[in-house]
Amino acid sequence: MKSVSGENTDLIINGEKIHVQTEDWGENGFVLVSRIFKNGSVIKTFKFPYEKISHAEVDDRRRKALLQLHQYVIEKLHAD
User: pLDDT of 9-35, one tens digit each?
Assistant: First the structure.
């Protein structure tokens, strides 16, 4: 199963540049991973296993879940 393409977003939160990177680690653990970077270092990681994705074998389903995870992390950053 090939990985679906990831998402990257740069944000300014409280005057600081934050980068959110979300990837499909299909071949390395069957999990979607979203990481928050600040000053080039990972400050927080979110993981969403394939088991929680209905029909994870379908690329479109994984892509939709990846986009939802990415948006969740961005919204969480804005809420904190």
Answer: 999 999 999 999 999 998 778 999 999
